[in-house]
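Record 1 of the preview.
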Amino acid sequence: MFKKITFISFALFLSLCNIKAQDVISASTENQLNQLKTKIQAQQKIINKNTESLKSHESIIADLGAEITRLKNDQVEQLQAFESKTTSILEAYNAKIEAQNKSIEDLKASINKKDYNLYVYIAIALGIALVLFVYFMKMATQKAITQQGKNWSDFLTYIVKR
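->
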């Protein structure tokens, strides 16, 4: 009986250890998520600065548009060069934003997969604990029935001898 209780305690201890390990993994994942959120916030600040810079560039472009009417062909070529630089900056920002969106989606998929694995491990641990519980209850019941039969036989023998 003591061995069974010890074995059940050991099985429950292993289950608790598994759950604690999953908690540590979850905490690590949350830490990584917080770090990524911090990085995303920093990137958003940079994007906001760059948006303000872009607005200032757009106002410069508008001023240059007013000058184009007064300038000759050389000035028109300089404006086209400036516009191409601005376009390349916008394309670079768009590429960065798309890369960030892809990183966020990948992170979400990774977190969902880790959560699914955690739930599977918990379900397996609970299933094993349930099977062990049923098995040991069956053994304990069988032992109790056997012991009761023996005690009854001893009692009948005792009654017959008297």
